[in-house]
Amino acid sequence: MWDIGHEFPPQSYVVTRADLVRYAGASGDFNPIHWSDRVAREVGLPGVVAHGMFTLALAGRALTAWAGSADRVVSFGARFTAPVVVSDDDSGARIDVTGRVTARDDDRATVELTVTCAGVRVLGAPKAVVRC
Amino acid sequence: MPLYPGLAGRTFGPTAPYGVGREKITEFASAIGDQEHEDADTAPLTFPIVAAFRAMEMFFADPSVGIDLRHVVHGAQRFEQVRPLRAGDVVTAQLTVDSVRSAAGVDLVNTRTEVVTMSGELLCAASATLVHREETS
Protein backbone atom coordinates (compact mmCIF):
# COMPACT_ATOMS: atom_id res chain seq x y z
CA MET A 1 0.00 0.00 0.00
CA TRP A 2 3.04 2.26 0.09
CA ASP A 3 3.59 2.09 -3.66
CA ILE A 4 3.57 5.30 -5.66
CA GLY A 5 0.05 6.02 -6.86
CA HIS A 6 -1.70 4.09 -4.09
CA GLU A 7 -4.89 5.84 -3.02
CA PHE A 8 -6.16 5.46 0.52
CA PRO A 9 -9.86 5.10 1.41
CA PRO A 10 -11.40 8.61 1.61
CA GLN A 11 -12.48 9.79 5.05
CA SER A 12 -15.29 12.21 5.96
CA TYR A 13 -15.83 14.11 9.16
CA VAL A 14 -18.64 16.38 10.34
CA VAL A 15 -17.80 19.49 12.37
CA THR A 16 -20.50 21.25 14.38
CA ARG A 17 -20.44 24.33 16.61
CA ALA A 18 -20.39 22.05 19.66
CA ASP A 19 -17.23 20.39 18.29
CA LEU A 20 -15.53 23.79 18.01
CA VAL A 21 -16.35 24.63 21.63
CA ARG A 22 -15.00 21.27 22.68
CA TYR A 23 -11.83 21.72 20.63
CA ALA A 24 -11.28 25.21 22.09
CA GLY A 25 -11.36 23.71 25.57
CA ALA A 26 -9.16 20.74 24.72
CA SER A 27 -6.56 22.78 22.83
CA GLY A 28 -6.57 25.98 24.88
CA ASP A 29 -7.24 28.12 21.78
CA PHE A 30 -10.13 30.38 22.77
CA ASN A 31 -9.91 32.83 19.85
CA PRO A 32 -13.52 34.11 19.61
CA ILE A 33 -13.67 33.79 15.80
CA HIS A 34 -14.19 30.08 16.54
CA TRP A 35 -17.27 30.57 18.73
CA SER A 36 -18.68 34.12 18.29
CA ASP A 37 -20.45 35.13 15.06
CA ARG A 38 -20.20 38.76 16.18
CA VAL A 39 -16.39 38.70 16.43
CA ALA A 40 -16.02 36.56 13.29
CA ARG A 41 -18.04 39.12 11.28
CA GLU A 42 -16.09 42.02 12.76
CA VAL A 43 -12.93 40.60 11.19
CA GLY A 44 -14.64 40.05 7.85
CA LEU A 45 -15.55 36.37 8.03
CA PRO A 46 -19.04 35.20 7.05
CA GLY A 47 -19.46 33.64 10.50
CA VAL A 48 -17.80 31.32 12.98
CA VAL A 49 -14.98 29.30 11.39
CA ALA A 50 -13.22 26.12 12.52
CA HIS A 51 -9.74 26.37 14.01
CA GLY A 52 -7.23 25.67 11.25
CA MET A 53 -5.67 23.27 13.71
CA PHE A 54 -8.99 21.45 14.02
CA THR A 55 -9.09 20.85 10.28
CA LEU A 56 -5.44 19.78 10.34
CA ALA A 57 -6.25 17.43 13.24
CA LEU A 58 -8.95 15.78 11.11
CA ALA A 59 -6.44 15.31 8.28
CA GLY A 60 -4.15 13.80 10.92
CA ARG A 61 -6.86 11.35 11.93
CA ALA A 62 -7.20 10.21 8.34
CA LEU A 63 -3.43 9.87 8.01
CA THR A 64 -3.16 7.90 11.25
CA ALA A 65 -5.94 5.56 10.12
CA TRP A 66 -4.13 4.94 6.82
CA ALA A 67 -0.69 4.52 8.43
CA GLY A 68 -2.06 2.27 11.18
CA SER A 69 -0.26 4.20 13.91
CA ALA A 70 0.83 7.75 14.77
CA ASP A 71 4.32 6.35 15.52
CA ARG A 72 4.98 5.96 11.81
CA VAL A 73 4.54 9.63 10.96
CA VAL A 74 7.80 11.52 10.49
CA SER A 75 6.37 14.86 9.42
CA PHE A 76 2.98 16.33 8.70
CA GLY A 77 1.76 19.80 7.77
CA ALA A 78 -0.20 22.16 5.55
CA ARG A 79 -1.02 25.76 4.80
CA PHE A 80 -4.39 27.16 5.87
CA THR A 81 -5.82 28.45 2.62
CA ALA A 82 -9.58 28.86 3.08
CA PRO A 83 -11.79 29.14 6.15
CA VAL A 84 -14.16 26.32 7.13
CA VAL A 85 -17.40 28.11 7.96
CA VAL A 86 -19.42 26.13 10.50
CA SER A 87 -23.10 27.04 10.42
CA ASP A 88 -25.11 27.28 13.63
CA ASP A 89 -27.23 24.19 13.03
CA ASP A 90 -27.06 20.46 13.58
CA SER A 91 -25.42 19.70 10.24
CA GLY A 92 -22.36 21.98 10.62
CA ALA A 93 -19.67 21.45 7.97
CA ARG A 94 -18.33 18.31 6.33
CA ILE A 95 -14.61 17.79 5.76
CA ASP A 96 -13.51 15.26 3.14
CA VAL A 97 -9.97 13.88 3.17
CA THR A 98 -8.26 11.86 0.45
CA GLY A 99 -4.65 10.73 0.27
CA ARG A 100 -2.26 9.27 -2.24
CA VAL A 101 1.34 8.05 -2.16
CA THR A 102 3.43 10.33 -4.39
CA ALA A 103 7.02 9.37 -3.55
CA ARG A 104 8.78 6.44 -2.00
CA ASP A 105 12.24 5.33 -0.96
CA ASP A 106 13.44 2.29 0.99
CA ASP A 107 11.62 2.97 4.21
CA ARG A 108 9.69 6.20 3.74
CA ALA A 109 6.70 7.29 1.70
CA THR A 110 5.33 10.74 0.95
CA VAL A 111 1.56 11.03 1.19
CA GLU A 112 -0.15 14.02 -0.40
CA LEU A 113 -3.64 14.72 0.87
CA THR A 114 -6.57 16.77 -0.33
CA VAL A 115 -8.78 18.29 2.32
CA THR A 116 -11.99 19.88 1.11
CA CYS A 117 -15.16 21.42 2.50
CA ALA A 118 -18.09 21.70 0.07
CA GLY A 119 -15.65 21.09 -2.78
CA VAL A 120 -13.22 23.87 -1.76
CA ARG A 121 -9.67 22.97 -0.77
CA VAL A 122 -9.28 24.30 2.76
CA LEU A 123 -5.70 23.14 3.31
CA GLY A 124 -2.85 24.02 0.95
CA ALA A 125 -0.42 21.26 0.03
CA PRO A 126 -1.21 18.99 2.99
CA LYS A 127 1.58 16.46 3.03
CA ALA A 128 3.13 13.82 5.27
CA VAL A 129 6.18 11.60 5.34
CA VAL A 130 5.50 8.17 6.80
CA ARG A 131 7.82 5.28 7.71
CA CYS A 132 6.66 2.22 5.84
CA MET B 1 3.44 49.60 12.53
CA PRO B 2 6.04 47.30 11.09
CA LEU B 3 7.23 44.50 13.27
CA TYR B 4 9.87 44.79 15.91
CA PRO B 5 13.37 44.89 14.46
CA GLY B 6 15.63 42.13 15.70
CA LEU B 7 12.82 39.66 16.22
CA ALA B 8 14.35 36.94 14.05
CA GLY B 9 16.52 34.66 16.13
CA ARG B 10 14.86 35.47 19.43
CA THR B 11 13.56 32.66 21.64
CA PHE B 12 10.58 32.52 23.99
CA GLY B 13 10.24 30.03 26.81
CA PRO B 14 10.95 27.39 27.83
CA THR B 15 7.49 27.00 29.30
CA ALA B 16 6.78 25.55 32.70
CA PRO B 17 6.82 21.73 32.66
CA TYR B 18 3.71 20.20 31.10
CA GLY B 19 2.71 16.68 32.15
CA VAL B 20 0.98 14.67 29.44
CA GLY B 21 -1.90 12.72 30.98
CA ARG B 22 -4.13 9.94 29.67
CA GLU B 23 -7.21 11.99 30.46
CA LYS B 24 -5.92 14.96 28.43
CA ILE B 25 -5.07 12.69 25.50
CA THR B 26 -8.58 11.21 25.63
CA GLU B 27 -10.13 14.68 25.92
CA PHE B 28 -8.17 15.98 22.92
CA ALA B 29 -8.89 12.85 20.87
CA SER B 30 -12.62 13.07 21.51
CA ALA B 31 -12.57 16.81 20.74
CA ILE B 32 -11.33 15.96 17.23
CA GLY B 33 -14.11 13.39 16.95
CA ASP B 34 -11.96 10.37 17.69
CA GLN B 35 -14.42 9.09 20.28
CA GLU B 36 -12.97 5.63 20.30
CA HIS B 37 -9.33 6.61 20.48
CA GLU B 38 -7.94 3.16 21.08
CA ASP B 39 -4.60 3.94 22.64
CA ALA B 40 -5.06 6.48 25.43
CA ASP B 41 -1.30 6.45 26.05
CA THR B 42 -0.40 7.78 22.58
CA ALA B 43 -1.38 11.34 21.69
CA PRO B 44 -2.92 12.26 18.30
CA LEU B 45 -0.58 13.75 15.69
CA THR B 46 -1.45 17.39 16.30
CA PHE B 47 -1.54 17.09 20.11
CA PRO B 48 1.91 18.73 20.55
CA ILE B 49 0.18 22.01 19.70
CA VAL B 50 -1.20 21.97 23.26
CA ALA B 51 2.33 22.29 24.67
CA ALA B 52 3.58 24.47 21.79
CA PHE B 53 0.68 26.88 22.21
CA ARG B 54 1.98 27.76 25.69
CA ALA B 55 5.27 28.94 24.20
CA MET B 56 3.32 30.83 21.54
CA GLU B 57 1.33 32.60 24.24
CA MET B 58 4.62 33.73 25.85
CA PHE B 59 5.65 35.07 22.44
CA PHE B 60 2.37 36.96 21.91
CA ALA B 61 2.35 38.32 25.47
CA ASP B 62 5.84 39.83 25.23
CA PRO B 63 5.36 43.62 24.80
CA SER B 64 8.67 43.96 22.95
CA VAL B 65 7.33 41.73 20.16
CA GLY B 66 4.51 44.09 19.24
CA ILE B 67 2.13 41.54 17.75
CA ASP B 68 -1.54 42.40 17.95
CA LEU B 69 -3.35 39.06 18.23
CA ARG B 70 -6.43 40.48 16.52
CA HIS B 71 -4.32 40.93 13.39
CA VAL B 72 -2.79 37.47 13.35
CA VAL B 73 -3.88 34.62 11.12
CA HIS B 74 -2.41 31.13 11.31
CA GLY B 75 -0.94 30.68 7.83
CA ALA B 76 0.66 27.26 8.00
CA GLN B 77 1.60 24.54 10.46
CA ARG B 78 3.96 21.65 10.23
CA PHE B 79 5.06 18.97 12.70
CA GLU B 80 8.28 17.03 12.56
CA GLN B 81 7.93 14.25 15.06
CA VAL B 82 10.56 12.02 16.56
CA ARG B 83 7.81 10.12 18.30
CA PRO B 84 4.25 10.91 19.42
CA LEU B 85 3.80 12.39 22.89
CA ARG B 86 2.82 9.72 25.38
CA ALA B 87 1.04 9.69 28.73
CA GLY B 88 3.66 10.21 31.41
CA ASP B 89 5.88 12.50 29.34
CA VAL B 90 6.79 15.75 31.05
CA VAL B 91 7.77 18.33 28.44
CA THR B 92 8.61 21.97 27.94
CA ALA B 93 8.30 24.05 24.80
CA GLN B 94 10.54 26.79 23.48
CA LEU B 95 9.74 28.98 20.49
CA THR B 96 12.38 30.40 18.15
CA VAL B 97 11.56 33.06 15.57
CA ASP B 98 13.18 31.69 12.43
CA SER B 99 12.45 34.59 10.10
CA VAL B 100 10.32 37.67 9.57
CA ARG B 101 9.47 38.74 6.06
CA SER B 102 7.35 41.70 4.97
CA ALA B 103 5.26 41.61 1.82
CA ALA B 104 2.19 43.48 0.61
CA GLY B 105 1.06 44.88 3.95
CA VAL B 106 1.64 41.73 5.94
CA ASP B 107 4.51 40.33 7.96
CA LEU B 108 5.13 36.62 7.66
CA VAL B 109 6.61 35.34 10.90
CA ASN B 110 8.05 31.84 10.78
CA THR B 111 8.38 30.19 14.17
CA ARG B 112 9.69 26.83 15.27
CA THR B 113 8.70 25.46 18.66
CA GLU B 114 10.60 22.50 20.04
CA VAL B 115 8.84 20.21 22.46
CA VAL B 116 11.42 18.40 24.59
CA THR B 117 11.37 16.14 27.63
CA MET B 118 12.82 17.34 30.92
CA SER B 119 15.96 15.40 30.10
CA GLY B 120 16.31 17.31 26.83
CA GLU B 121 15.10 14.66 24.38
CA LEU B 122 13.47 16.30 21.36
CA LEU B 123 10.04 14.79 20.70
CA CYS B 124 8.54 17.18 18.18
CA ALA B 125 9.22 20.44 16.38
CA ALA B 126 6.09 22.42 15.55
CA SER B 127 6.68 25.07 12.88
CA ALA B 128 4.07 27.79 12.43
CA THR B 129 3.77 30.58 9.90
CA LEU B 130 1.90 33.53 11.38
CA VAL B 131 0.49 36.19 9.07
CA HIS B 132 0.38 39.57 10.80
CA ARG B 133 -1.51 42.39 9.13
CA GLU B 134 0.06 45.76 9.70
CA GLU B 135 -2.95 48.05 9.62
CA THR B 136 -4.16 49.19 13.00
CA SER B 137 -7.78 49.93 12.10
Give an account of the 3D structure.
The complex is a heterodimer of chains A (132) and B (137). Chain A has helices at residues 17-27, 37-42, 52-67; strands spanning 11-15, 73-80, 93-104, 108-117, 120-121, 123-131. Chain A is of the alpha+beta class and 132 residues long. In chain A, strands 1, 2, 3, 4, 5 and 6 form a six-stranded antiparallel sheet that branches. The longest helix of chain A is centred in the middle third of the chain and has 16 residues, at 52-67. In chain A, 42% of the residues are buried. Chain B has 137 residues and is an alpha+beta fold. In chain B, 18% of the residues lie in helices and 38% in strands. Chain B has two helices and six strands; from the N terminus they run ββααββββ. In chain B, strands 1, 2, 3, 4, 5 and 6 form a six-stranded antiparallel sheet that branches. Chain B is globular and about 45 Å long. The termini of chain B are close together. The A-B interface holds A 13-15, 19, 22-23, 25-29, 31, 43, 52-54, 56-58, 60-61, 63-64, 69-71, 73-80, 124 and B 24, 27-28, 30-34, 42-46, 49-50, 53-54, 69-70, 73-81, 83-84, 127, 129.
